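Q: For a teaching session next week I want to show students how multiple molecules come together into a single three-dimensional assembly. I've collected the sequence lines for a complex. Could you give me the predicted structure tokens for the whole thing so I can convert them for display?
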Amino acid sequence: MGTTESSIVDSARARPGLLLVIFLGGLLLVDLAAKLAGLSLLPIGGAISADRLGSNLWNGVVIGLVIGLAGIGLSMTYSILSFANFSHGDLLSTGAFTGWGVAFLIAGFGDVPVRALLSVRDAGDATAGDIGAHIISTPVAILVGLLAAFAITAAVALALDRAFYKPMRDRDGISILIASIGAALIVRYVIQFVYGSDRRGVTASVEASNLAFDPLGLSVNAHELSIVVAAIGLMLAMHFMLQHTKLGTAMRAMADNKDLALVTGIPAERVVTATWIIGGGLAGASGYLYVLLRGTIQFDFGWLLLLLIFAAVILGGIGSVYGAIAGGLVIGIVFTTSTIWIPSDFNEAAAFAVMITMLLLRPEGLFGGVSTA
Amino acid sequence: MSAEEAGSTDEHAGDERAADEPVGAGDTPSDDDEAPVSAESDAGTDHTLDGDAILRLRDLDAGYGDLQILSDVDLDVADEEFVTIVGPNGAGKSTVMKTVFGLTTHMDGTVEFEGEPIHGLAPEQIIREGIGFVPQNDNVFPGLSVRENLEMGAYILDSVPEDRIEEIYDRFPILRERSDQKAGTLSGGQRQMVAMGRALMLDPDLLLLDEPSAGLAPDLVADMFDRIDRINDSGTAVLMVEQNAKEALRRCDRGYVLVNGENRYTDRGEVLLGDEDVRKDFLGG
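A: Of course. Below is the structure for the complete assembly, covering every listed component.
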């Protein structure tokens, strides 16, 4: 039916672009090698040491895992509920504030007023140092905070669904998308009202928190290591759930074909509920981990991060959980390594340039068309 | 789109169906409307069974939203019977099936299954009553393995019925070989087996098949009908809508001819096949 013919034309049309991208990528790699050797080929970017390259890559992996974790929920709601959820970023903020409130409560209970602790230091003059939340000094507090972030955000996501999205279940994706922007505003300004709008430090500094990996010349922060372990653990749990449980199989079935799921007897609303619990919970956990990484918190950080999360999800192939993870890693690494050539003010632009290039060459995204929930 | 799938869309009628088109909705309705049953026709017009029926439709009005498709449809399926619905495009054949399964807007009349009214129930509840449904297109989950597709058919059970999966693998041995393969990578015939297997997972008393031969290569169609015969022989009643009307009437116990959402003729398959009016108007001579 002419499909083979048109695919040849398509690939021929794509080839000059692909060649250009390969050429530019190669040029950057050659330049990177030259920079490492102390030469300067391209007129942009300064010298770079292997150590700095290593730490750039490591930072990229850490931030990429957090973005990927956040993207899982966005991708799930897209594939199962068929809309792009713009309130997803503010679910990250929800998880971060509630989770850190609980972590503070455990870390600083007795020394600092409870109100100051639960409001993440908005209602008191305690400093982050007074509370002393850190994975090395107060590992239990950090861990319980992560669980709380997951649980509370899951509950908030479910409440938003019942209030806004469930009554609109049969409406088209654009209507629900716009409703989700409204939900995002509500969540964001409730957070601002409850927790205040100032940016503040959250984690205490602890001596000897850097673990050095001498052979790689890499210095790894204990918090970064915790984030990597937590993010990979949650991703593996997600993978197991999707591939080896009845609920996960039903989620993939609904992502594949909702009408058929209905006539097969899969209880759609129960699967949707589970989707919000898991997707919302992972968003809350990733927001909490993002604050652990950055060390500061602000009421609108999740909203500002949403664009990068969308970039990761679209890059990976929207609708695919594994694509979201892969897209997050690519976006994270581009985000940090692009500073070798360009000022760090522009690194978000570099991340989007990669996403757009990717979409020009492979419009369905990295994992698009593979269809895995 | 592959050649196999070409016949499956409504706009793109297959060769078998082309013959039906002259009497398609709105084309030459005048004679039929004025004289619903022509004098020389031998085909029956008694649309109900005297004895027990597991499925009983009476005066059924149904459609989609405000759009009414079926009016006063009567239809019976006896236990272990093989019933087929034929008629021109737009006659409401698939709508009957979807209405039984709770997928349309029920307007008036009754649908009884095994003596209980089921109109107004959701598909999830109708499955529990013992009815399985194989939709026409996109009837497997392409991203799930063959086994996972079958498991989803038994979602309402607490645990996966291994013995039932084995029975379905015995019925369709190729599926055992392809157990771990994604259903989206299977051929059209194999996908149809997965779809039937999934609908049979709960061992239904009645199986609804919406155009099972749609999208199949011609040499696979006879094979598919043989499989349906065997499913019926093993005790499952079958209600089938089929574009391949002659073959369907040859295989079935009784057939219903539906026109413009209303009953026209009802009789044994071979009687309908032998009736000049039915042949001329609905089977292409």
